[in-house]
Fold this sequence. Notes:
Elements lengths: L1 E3 L4 E3 L7 H4 L1 E8 L6 E9 L3 E3 L3 E3 L13 E11 L3 E6 L9 E3 L7 E8 L9 E11 L2 E10 L1
Antiparallel strand pairs: 1-2, 3-4, 5-7, 6-7, 7-10, 8-11, 9-10, 11-12
Amino acid sequence: xxxxxxxxxYDLRISNATYDRDNGQYECRMKRRKSGETLHSKSLALTxxxxxxxxxxxxxxxxxxxxxxRPVNLTxxxxxxxxxxxxxxxxxxxxxxxxxxxxxxxxxDVPTTSTLTVRPTKENDGAVYRSDFKLLLSGSQTLKKKFVxxx
Length: 151
């Protein structure tokens, strides 16, 4: 910690940050000298960036075998990552994001899974769906991967 009492400046510097040691909430408090009463308090969340494992897609065999009217689940998941990766689903040729069920991993050892349920019809035979896998690397840098499913 670096500080200058005369300037009223107190800086916490974290070097060589690691997820296990440094990821989490930090709080700075200013207290009254004799009573210990808190005068001001400010919290800050520090997210240490970690790359997730490569995404796994299911079903892995393409094209996906499907029966008209019977739901098919398309799944993209990845373990780790801080923050958790974002997975968005689209039907090829359309810009509108499709509704999918997302289960975020509670910690870096639990996978983040996104599942799109498709109910095949004759009209969408041969339809192509894609999942865009995006994660924050640092600042505004992102890594994008695209997976394509043909039903």
